[in-house]
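Blinded run. Sample ID left blank on purpose so nobody reads anything into the name before looking at the predicted structure. Input follows.
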Amino acid sequence: MSSNSEQSLALEGQNLLRIQSYIDSPERQKQLYKKTLFIVVLSQVFGGAGLAAGITVGALIAQDMLGTDGFAGVPTALFTLGSALAAFLVGRASQRFGRRFGLAAGFLVGGAGAIGVVISALISNIFLLFASLFIYGAGTATNLQARYAGTDLASSTQRATAISIAMVSTTFGAVAGPNLVEVMGRFAQSIGVPTLAGPFILAATAFILAGLVLLVFLRPDPLIVAKAIAEKKSKEEEHPNVKSSVSGDTKKRGIALGTTIMLLTQLVMVAIMTMTPVQMRHHGHGLSEVGLVISIHVCAMYLPSFVTGILVDKIGRMLMAIASGATLLAAGALAAVAPPDSMIVFVIALALLGLGWNFGLICGTTLIVDATNPTNRAKVQGTVDVSIALSGASGGVLSGIVVANSSFTALSLGGGIMALLIVPVLFWARSEKKTG
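Blinded prediction complete.
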């Protein structure tokens, strides 16, 4: 027993010495920052594949089991709620134990949920399906939370770029996932599993691989190192000749501003995106045309990220937030006046919708990172992502109600105008800063 205790103390001592070597060396900090980005990119490629492949057929499995499309929206609602809970838990776990443990656990739980979906399809158990989809939501939440990991050791002029690199890497998996649906369906059939469960075999494999990549290679943990650096800086700032440059009120305002931008962009994007396929199908567009429009929309959500990140770092958070509101307004206005038979107008409108969301998410995320420190960052980020998930769910539900009681035109125009609320929120933040 004593030998085990001695070994534990020795390992703890080695870890402390290892972390100390990063605290004392800015050069090693830069090396760890680059290594962390590489590991996050690798995990995000797998995570994106797991996310997209599962979402593609979730509703179809429920429809197939129940023999009706009356509950086809339940899978989306379930993994959205699951992702909201997981965002909270992953944030808390990351804050306490580090990014490595929090993110790896989230992906592995999501993988377990995907395995549960496959089993439910095999035994045709709808209750197991719904429970598994809820658990599967952990993978989708972790996929979004991973964008923060690269920022822990980034400077203030690198943060948006680090976020954008993670988001771009998600695109590769997100594009590959749906394209493998048919292949995975054939594979599932060949091993005696229902065809529609095939993509969830891919989702389980992808999420588990993403979790293992983080668990094995994300060492030393960037958040733990960042905490140690922040503690050293905090002790230095306690010296009477050193003053902290950022007040508590300024930080709270930054968190509120970043959260509001992301909530608005998520609500508007999901609302218009959800009803666009319905609008197109009502006016004679086929599934292939709907699929093309949504594919272009998803690409516009993620692919511009690298350029967006550079712009946010170079020209500022505020200008890019305004650009987000203006782009979403343009998307909403264009969708509202789109001739029902015009494919090209729908493509442009949904591309703008994805781009506006991209601007808002990256500048909002960067503002959150700016306004937090390693001692509270992961916890705050998890809480914010809960709000984003619930905002998206609300947008999806409300969009149907608005269209049912008014029109797609009213929804699109109203959503675009709502996005402009970003501008007065920015003015509020600036005025508070001047009077504070």
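Unblinding after everyone has recorded impressions. The chain has a mean pLDDT of 85.
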